Amino acid sequence: MALWDRVWQTGKSMVVGHAITMREMLHKPVTVRYPEEKPPFERGSRSVPVLKVNEESGRLNCVSCGLCERACPPSCIEITQAMDEKGRKKPWPETFQLDLSHCMVCNLCVEACPFDALEMADVVELGSYQVQDLILQKGQLAEIWKTSRALRVAGGERL
Amino acid sequence: MEAQGGAPAVVERDGRRLMKINMGPQHPSTHGVLRLIVTLDGEVVVGVEPDIGFLHRNFEKIVEGWSYPGIVPFSDRNDYLGAITNEVAVCLAIERLAQIEVPPRAVYLRVLFCELQRILSHILFYGTFGLDLGAFSPFMYAFREREWGYTLMEKATGARMLYAYNRIGGLRNDLPDEWFADLEKFLVFMERQAWPEYMGLLIENEIFRERTIGVGKLTPEQAIAWGASGPVLRSTGVAWDLRKAAPYLGYERFEFDVPVGKNGDTYDSAMVRMLEIKESIRIIRQVLKMLPDGPVLARVRPNLRPRAGEYYSRVESPRGEVGVYLVSDGSARPYRLKWRAPSFCHLQLVPAMGGGGKVADLIAAVGSLDVIMGEVDR
Amino acid sequence: MAGGKDATPDATGRGAAAGGNSVPMARPADSGSAGPTVAAGGQDAAVAPELPTPELETLRQVIARRLSHLEPDGATVGLPAFRVVRERLLETARQWRDAPEIGLEYLSCLSGVDYRDHIDVVYHVFSVAHPGRGAVLKVAAQKTGTAGPWLPSVTAVWPGAEWHEREVFDLLGVRFTDHPDLRRILLPEGFSGGYPLRRDFSDERVQRERKVRQR
Description:
The structure holds three protein chains of three kinds. By secondary structure, chain A is α+β, with helices and mostly antiparallel strands. Chain A folds into two domains: 1-30; 49-154, Alpha-Beta Plaits. Chain A has helices at residues 2-25, 67-71, 108-112, 138-154; strands at 49-51, 77-83, 89-99, 118-120, 135-136. In chain A, strands 2-3-5 form a three-stranded antiparallel β-sheet. Chain B is an alpha+beta fold. Chain B has 15 helices and nine strands. Chain B has helices at residues 59-64, 68-75, 83-98, 104-132, 137-157, 177-203, 206-212, 220-225, 230-235, 242-245, 266-290, 342-347, 350-354, 359-369, 373-377; strands at residues 9-13, 16-23, 35-41, 44-51, 166-167, 170-171, 309-317, 320-328, 336-340. In chain B, strands 1-2-3-4 form a four-stranded antiparallel β-sheet. Chain B has a three-stranded antiparallel β-sheet with strand order 7-8-9. Chain B starts with 8 loop residues before the first strand and ends with a helix. Helices cover 16% and strands 19% of the residues of chain C. Chain C has a five-stranded mixed β-sheet with strand order 1-3-6-5-4. Chain C has a two-stranded parallel ribbon with strand order 7-8. Chain C is elongated, with a radius of gyration of 21 Å. The two termini of chain C are 37 Å apart. At the B-C interface, helix 1, strand 7, strand 8, strand 9 and helix 12 of B face strand 2, strand 4, strand 5 and helix 3 of C.
């Protein structure tokens, strides 16, 4: 009895399992072959903070106030204020560095920014063989913003 | 230690030739960088000794130097498959000490995300547990739904695994209406198609049952004494769920059952998780019905200083009881934050579960604990 | 609803500037806050904070009545908390677990907290049979003395304390006597840089150079 029961159970398991996998064969595959075929990003998905460029003036929105620097938990942002020859502060950053190797993509810097100067990009392929290459300067950050923008506009309003 | 280096060490004990070998830290079936030093007599496991710490980064020390808002996204990294529950645990502790009132909509959405997270984590458990036992196809099916669920998460929070979605005082952003429609589709698919498929492919499969029933047995006394929680404790028949025992986030408002096992073996532990998926779907449905309108984030001082004091917040994560012991001295940074990780406690049970059985049963035992090394090593 | 701009937290305030570079220290609480100071370590426990449920209030009274050697501790919010001297820790733990009207058999968390002059080890214990019950037990390990801070191990009462005690030993340097296997657990075996979770710890190991300055 016990033996027959086990034979019956095993047979049933095989039939059920095969039925499920066979049925799946009739469906379209769900796999995306990633490097060749890139799935679209969801609206609002984020990778790293980048600097926004003002459409009209072509300058950065950033005024170098340093709030994002303070809000960043792993302190991966470093800003130095621009100065003119007389030592007066100018409302843009002399340097703006972002250490990608420490960034944890938490969005706190964007929320801290009162000037709408930062935005989370949706560019993820930023890998590199050298750690130094992961420190992005303000020019690079603005470049990434430009490439990520197309995706964002296509996806509708930003979150 | 004998088992270091490459060659297995042979030890003589009671006239038997025992072999001491490493399982891990780079072993495909140990779920991360867990190293088990296994003493074998032939294929019978005589002794197991877990060795941890390979992912240690001292979370607790790092956050002592951070201000409170930054701790919440960092806590995601502890249990990276239950990121939302981690955030909720930290937020509950900070909000209690800072006496912040969270808007009702945010509380309901937190429940929703905790339960969605539980579903996704249990789906992954299902896939990897099958993989541990040599069943490859269930893994593919598990990832089909997991991708869908993670896309839902991405739509809501902007990230797939480490969401950084909770803020002290609520949530980062509200959700668009179409997101709820997507969620409903996902839930219906989970219920009608995916869940029966999971059961048919793996849980009801005779080979799976043979491999798991009676393997890695725990008694309720053992489980309680060693601090087990979550599905591991419930598989022994103890109906202990923090959502019922010490309700947080207003869980007492929702109707759900706590599935329990009978034998405390790996089969029951898998079964409890499968049933919990259904209960989580039930809770999400109730949240969707009761969800109030309103803001999702309370106004919180940017430089938050909770009052001095201590609070221990407990949350039922997919793996068990996550505890956050927060000691505040009234400054902008925590004086001490201790993370109680369920997987850390569960790993202590490996010698009891795996000793005396075969090597393959040890793998089933470790797999059924569903350990996440990120929170074990912290 | 979708545009979450108004839902983003108001982190733009000026207050962030006060965040400063200070290392967190055990210093007295702001004068405005009602809570007891942490640094006092429960010495000023005259006013115990209110407990959320009547069951916890009953438990506090039961423990205070039955075990008169325990001192109430005022810093903990939401749970009855008591402080015990090292010599009576094991006995108290046994009574907490075995006395039927206390019955705290589930050790949820064991943490060590460094207060510079001593290390507090804090036991968060709950009851599975009576879900409403839970309490906190604190014991101080003095740093003075040649042996360094030490405490009796509670593994005989709550076996699950084993790894937690190893962790406290590893990261804070509290030795637990009669522990079955007191070894390092998270740090590598040869680690010799001190105890990371102590307040005076400084990491002397070679660091990866950081290009972006740290605050």
